[in-house]
């Protein structure tokens, strides 16, 4: 796959993945087309050497894996991890707000969202809806309005002269999106959702919406921008960009034992049944092995690469970076390091990655947060502590992380894809200790 094809398909993936549910659905489609068999956790599994499989939990987390021809105890697992969720605005259970003839929806802020950029955007709505059908059965479907149906208008500067110097945002009162004008205060959001289900899924015969998990998202599609097409601009680059890179890497042919895990709920701490701090990955790996002793032996020969976006040095705010560790967009993948293990990288895992980058003729950078600033974290330390696997934290450098529209270099994702493809083919991830 060349870089143009890679980036074109990436834009399509981002457009089709407004929520974690849709992202996992897109990954399942691509995996199935490549011969991966979808397994149910409730079933007994019959697995074969050379087989390709995937497991989905909560429709928002996925583990894909391939089985090698040799013994898993000798080869171990090559694992890549990412997360499917992004900061956003989620609709409340009883969201209807009627003010001055406008119909608005109450929202909760999911994760550490940068709120200012949400104003004056064309917003659409997508997610999962549960319903009862005409036969009394309970079902759920994914919906996506796919067009701009709402906005959060800014207050004019004439009415807030301090807007450019002192405005703060009250998440309860300032950000409910405006959906339409109506004088009918009996308007029910669930009735509007029922009409959308019937439009998107007429065969469901839904008669009542019971509940939902819905998120607003920016209706502006992802794009390649810059005078020389240097950048990718999109919502949810953190961290669907990593999901897509890992997906393309595991789709490549290989005879190794490979795993791709994309968890939900990273932005809110990963502590859920579908999150990295939950049992999903350990459960899947355990089913490939006979007992706990084999699990320990396999993990000792394995490695996890946690892929989550890194902070590129911003030209307007370069003082927010350590002067020696300012990753540049289009400067290659970034090794993320933190002495307090907010990232799980150690000197051996970073050395291995540097070696693979050199072997693939790809550049590599490093990120360390300023010593006087706090450091974010990833699924890397969580996965390392949950299953005991040696782990490396890396990512593609980006601007505006957690904004409604983020920016990455147009060559970095493809560069990292080539390195991860090499990692997946690596027979040995051990460092000789003398």
UniProtKB/TrEMBL annotation:
<protein>
    <recommendedName>
        <fullName>M18 family aminopeptidase</fullName>
        <ecNumber>3.4.11.-</ecNumber>
    </recommendedName>
</protein>
<keyword id="KW-0862">Zinc</keyword>
<keyword id="KW-0378">Hydrolase</keyword>
<dbReference type="InterPro" id="IPR023358">
    <property type="entry name" value="Peptidase_M18_dom2"/>
</dbReference>
<dbReference type="Pfam" id="PF02127">
    <property type="entry name" value="Peptidase_M18"/>
</dbReference>
<dbReference type="GO" id="GO:0005737">
    <property type="term" value="C:cytoplasm"/>
</dbReference>
<keyword id="KW-0645">Protease</keyword>
<dbReference type="GO" id="GO:0004177">
    <property type="term" value="F:aminopeptidase activity"/>
</dbReference>
<dbReference type="GO" id="GO:0008237">
    <property type="term" value="F:metallopeptidase activity"/>
</dbReference>
<comment type="similarity">
    <text>Belongs to the peptidase M18 family.</text>
</comment>
<keyword id="KW-0482">Metalloprotease</keyword>
<keyword id="KW-0031">Aminopeptidase</keyword>
<dbReference type="GO" id="GO:0008270">
    <property type="term" value="F:zinc ion binding"/>
</dbReference>
<dbReference type="GO" id="GO:0006508">
    <property type="term" value="P:proteolysis"/>
</dbReference>
<keyword id="KW-0479">Metal-binding</keyword>
<dbReference type="InterPro" id="IPR001948">
    <property type="entry name" value="Peptidase_M18"/>
</dbReference>
């Amino acid at each position: 796959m060349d870089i143009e094809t890679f980036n074109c398909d990436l834009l399509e993936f981002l457009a089709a993945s407004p929520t974690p549910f849709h992202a996992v659905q897109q990954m399942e489609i691509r995996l199935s087309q490549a011969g991966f068999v979808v397994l149910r956790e409730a079933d007994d599994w019959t697995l074969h050497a050379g087989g390709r499989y995937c497991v989905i939990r909560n429709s928002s987390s996925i583990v894909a894996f391939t089985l090698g021809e040799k013994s898993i105890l000798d080869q171990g697992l090559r694992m890549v991890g990412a997360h499917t969720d992004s900061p956003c605005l989620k609709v409340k259970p009883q969201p209807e707000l009627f003010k001055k003839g406008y119909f608005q929806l109450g929202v909760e802020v999911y994760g550490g969202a940068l709120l200012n950029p949400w104003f004056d955007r064309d917003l659409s709505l997508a997610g999962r809806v549960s319903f009862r059908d005409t036969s009394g059965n309970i079902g759920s479907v994914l919906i996506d309005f796919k067009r701009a149906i709402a906005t959060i208008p800014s207050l004019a500067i004439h009415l807030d002269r301090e807007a450019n110097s002192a405005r703060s945002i009250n998440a309860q009162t300032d950000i409910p999106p405006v959906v339409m004008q109506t004088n009918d205060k009996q308007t029910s959001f669930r009735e509007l959702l029922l009409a959308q289900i019937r439009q998107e899924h007429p065969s469901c015969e839904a008669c009542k919406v019971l509940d939902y998990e819905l998120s607003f998202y920016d209706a502006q599609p992802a794009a390649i921008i810059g005078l020389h097409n240097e950048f990718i601009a999109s919502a949810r680059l953190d961290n669907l960009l990593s999901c897509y890179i890992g997906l393309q890497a595991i789709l490549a042919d290989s005879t190794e034992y490979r795993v791709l895990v994309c968890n939900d709920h990273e932005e809110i701490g990963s502590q859920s049944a579908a999150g990295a701090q939950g049992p999903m990955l350990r459960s899947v790996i355990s089913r490939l092995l006979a007992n706990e002793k084999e699990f320990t032996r396999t993990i000792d020969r394995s490695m996890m690469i946690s892929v989550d976006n890194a902070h590129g040095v911003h030209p307007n705010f370069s003082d927010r970076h350590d002067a020696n560790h300012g990753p540049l967009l289009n400067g290659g993948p970034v090794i993320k390091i933190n002495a307090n293990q907010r990232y799980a990288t150690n000197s051996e895992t970073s050395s291995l990655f540097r070696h693979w980058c050199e072997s693939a003729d790809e550049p590599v950078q490093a990120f360390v947060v300023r010593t006087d600033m706090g450091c974010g974290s990833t699924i890397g330390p969580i996965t390392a502590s949950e299953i005991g696997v040696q782990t490396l934290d890396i990512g593609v450098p980006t601007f505006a992380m957690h904004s409604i529209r983020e920016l990455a270099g147009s060559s970095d994702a493809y560069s990292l894809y080539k390195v991860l493809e090499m990692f997946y083919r690596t027979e040995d991830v051990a460092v000789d200790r003398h």
